[in-house]
């Protein structure tokens, strides 16, 4: 706050130097000031002051006289130390937080359920499995709302509106089965050698008997995602075991078997 009067003092001394230079020679510095000692020489008054005092604009009256005004804030050249305390310590200023992040965690749904953001601050418009990591959503500190659509095979789509808050958000939803959707699991065994039989070892098995692969019974299921342990046998091949997660409807099951050594 003391820089502005000081600048005026500099201007006064410089103006005095211009007015006296032609007759008295170089001007002397005022006591206690930072004014330059010496006159402008052969320069016009306006040129000399603009060169010696940055931030000042002058107009010549004649070769020895001029009028001047400040065109730049003097305080800008002498910043308040308190305003730059963070810069002096080397740490960048920390802006006040005006937004936050919402992390979504989805309730359990049917097998291969996907979620897609329909409206609101969507982080992506792609359809993703609910079992994967969903991108965080940047929201105002006061919260926001989004519309999410959930879909799964043999289920009706569901769209819900959810109010989000910073931090963890548990997203619940319920999918309704389509009318006429299958209620049991059927199987197609792919790549099995001739004469292969399959046996359900554990899981929601109908029985634990060995069946020809084209006569394996359908399994009634209350929920998708049940896990079966199946055993395969075929002439000339090693016994193979496969763990398979099944859903209602047709399930394609790959059969991988190794040939047995000769004589086995």
Name its key features.
single chain, 264 residues, mainly beta, four-stranded antiparallel β-sheet, 3 helices, 16 strands, elongated, Lipoprotein
Silhouette: elongated
| Radius of gyration over all CA atoms, rounded | 42 Å
Element string (H = helix, E = strand): HHEEHEEEEEEEEEEEEEE
Number of helices: 3
As a percent range, the share of strand residues is 25-35%
Mean pLDDT: 77
Strand numbers in spatial order across the main sheet: 5-4-7-8
Estimate percent helicity: 10-25%
* Main pleated-sheet profile: 4 strands, antiparallel
Tally of extended strands? 16
Protein name: Lipoprotein
Explain the overall architecture.
It comes from Nannocystis pusilla. This is Lipoprotein. With 264 residues, this protein is mainly beta. Helix content is 13%, strand content 34%. The chain contains three helices and 16 strands. The strands form five sheets. Strands 5-4-7-8 form a four-stranded antiparallel β-sheet, with no helix packed on it. It has a four-stranded antiparallel β-sheet with strand order 12-11-14-15, with no helix packed on it. Strands 6-3-9 form a three-stranded mixed β-sheet, with no helix packed on it. β7 (144-151) and β8 form a beta hairpin. α1 (3-24) packs antiparallel against α2 (45-52). The longest helix is centred in the N-terminal third of the chain and has 22 residues, at 3-24. It is elongated, with a radius of gyration of 42 Å.
